[in-house]
Amino acid sequence: PAPINLLFRSFISRDRIKEYEIPLEFLRRGNIDVHRDLFIEAIYDFYFVLEYLFGDGKFRKVEIVKSFLGSSLLREAFDQARTNPLPSITESRGALTRFQNTYQRWGNQEIAKYIVDLRGLLHHQSSKRATTWNPGLQDEYKVDANFLCVVAHHVCSNIVTSILFHEREMKRSQ
Predict the structure, then answer these.
(1) How sure is the predictor about 84, in pLDDT bands with cuts at 50, 70 and 90?
(2) Residue 26 · residue 45 · CB < 8 Å
(3) DSSP of 28-68
(4) At what angle do helices 72-83 and 39-54 cross, to 10 degrees?
(5) CB 46, CB 30: distance < 8 Å
(6) 33, 39 Cβ separation under 8 angstroms
(7) What does the alpha-carbon distance between residue 75 and residue 49 come to, in Å, rounded to a whole number?
(8) CB contact set of 101 (below 8 Å; sequence gap of 6+)
């Protein structure tokens, strides 16, 4: 049970939270996709959370990576996801090994670049390409989807919490 004033603050703050409706909707859809083991779709949804909030309208890979790294909140989320993997990762030897060999080894620069590259890989398909992906092999993207789930959740939770617990909102709900 939540305190009643938190419920009031949620209602009172709806105009400020509405500004984040789109990334929150992508977060919701990404969580559903992870639950359904639709990891490729989840990656897209979670990526859109990050692109919407931190991409600054950029579309070139170098610019997006730079925009991502310019956010202390996103860097903090990378750190959180790197050090606190979800049970779906830690309870699977293969997933944990892949997680340790990628995300736990990398710094924020490598993670940001990888995420943008991954989105690019998943966005394009061609029989002429040396590397391609199979939509029937969702499990190959489980680690990435779960990592991005933690990142997107951390970012959105911090944004909404900062609104709900802002001094002005707390005074208005008393």
Answers:
(1) very high
(2) yes
(3) HHHHHHHHTT-HHHHHHHHHHHHHHHHSTT--SHHHHHHHH
(4) 150
(5) yes
(6) yes
(7) 14
(8) none
**Helical spans, DSSP H, in the chain:** 4-12, 14-18, 21-35, 39-54, 61-69, 72-83, 87-90, 93-101, 108-123, 142-164, 167-172
At residue 166, what are phi and psi to the nearest 5 degrees?
Answer: -65, 145
Amino acid at 166: H
> The pTM is what?
0.89
Query: Which residues, 6 or more positions from 14, have their beta carbon under 8 angstroms from its beta carbon?
Result: none
What b/e string do you get for 98-124 counting C-beta neighbours within 10 Å, with b at 16 or more?
bbeebbeeeebeebbbbbbebbeebee
Going by pLDDT thresholds of 50, 70 and 90, the confidence category of residue 2 is low
3-state DSSP call for residue 154? helix
d(CA 150, CA 104): 14
User: What six digits make up the tokens of 87?
Assistant: 């049970």
